[in-house]
Task: structure prediction
Amino acid sequence: MPEFEGFKIVYEVIAMPKEKWAIMVEIMRRRDSAVLVARHNPFPRQPFDTKLEALEHVNRYLSDTVRMLEAEDVERRRRA
Result:
């Protein structure tokens, strides 16, 4: 799982029926422990065949989400 500077990412791989896998994700800011994205399954209707497949999808999701959160933080600081 990649590390993102300034963010703490908690995830849990969950075994589902029929040998499928899902992942629960939560994203927090390190400096103040604020929960930016509450614990959720980013792919609720998409069970994965392997844990590796699930992790690959989550890595892409996290990259996009963290990039968006960083952009929002920069924009918020500009306004202040």
